[in-house]
Write a structure and sequence with these properties.
Layout lengths: L1 H14 L3 E3 L7 E3 L8 H9 L24 H17 L2 H5 L1
Length: 97
């Protein structure tokens, strides 16, 4: 099961041109950009989907009919902003350092 998930993630990364396949003996993958040009946020979003803490904050979500009276929206929005900011500042180069 583990290899199926890894292969799916690699296929997704290749389809979005994050990786290219090496067509040489032994094969493998190569980054299509420099490591400092990839953020953890974009990789997690691609492989995991939305990182939003609640569904109403997910990209492309339909407007919530309860938004105007939601007492917790600002809290969730604040957390969503923190998550985006945090993962948006970490690059693959940072992880490899």
């Amino acid at each position: 099961m583990h290899s199926v998930l890894v292969n799916k993630a690699l296929d997704d990364l290749q389809a979005r041109e994050f990786l290219s396949v090496l067509l040489v003996k032994g094969g493998g993958y190569r980054l299509t950009r420099e490591p400092d040009q990839y953020t953890v946020g974009e990789i997690l979003t691609l492989t995991e989907g939305s990182l939003a803490p609640v569904s109403c904050l997910a990209q492309g979500a339909a407007p919530c009919p309860r938004m105007s009276s939601c007492r917790t929206y600002d809290m969730w929005k604040g957390l969503d902003d923190l998550i985006e900011d945090y993962f948006g500042k970490i690059t693959l180069a940072d992880l490899a350092a």
